[in-house]
Design a protein that fits this description.
mainly beta, six-stranded antiparallel beta sheet, two-stranded antiparallel ribbon, 1 helix
Amino acid sequence: MRFDRPVAARIGDDAPRERQIADLLERLISLCVEHVDRIGASASVAIAHPHEFRVLSSADANGNITVRPGDHIPSVPATTVKLRLDYAATAKWRIGTNLTWRGSVYAQGDENNQDVNGMICGYLLIDMDTAYQVTKQLQVFASVSNLLDKRYASFGALGENFFTGPGGTFNGANTVNEQFVGPGAPRSFWVGMRYAWK
């Protein structure tokens, strides 16, 4: 099985990295071919084309922020990759995993991409799940999200910090411009059962 890679041919400077991602997906799926009757796989790759997902306008007449053609839109990653693998260990027992990789992004408010704090780092998340079909109607399942307990930020915004006084107290006279980030969800476990009524 081979991937068609027209997307890599139109992304200019990012082509080598995107080609590596496509090659990795190709190798992973080729591993499934040997046991194709037991393995299911799906993948999606989203690539922001340099000329389609960039800001092409300027700030207002007051000129608080000057946005130039080519500046990236905040919170839109250049690349997102999702891969799903399923393995049927037996006729009743299934094991699966989700891998999600998101590239770095600029924080909201950093429309000109010049914030001194830089970009919000990308991340790779691994989720796993399993299910066992006890009877035709009853299924038990378990899952773990963020298996490696990765610490990451899912969102970021520029703003003013008013709590710069001693011990983090309010100090409205001496605010500091900072990058605020929203932490991603930590590792979590879920167990449950599903029952299908006749």
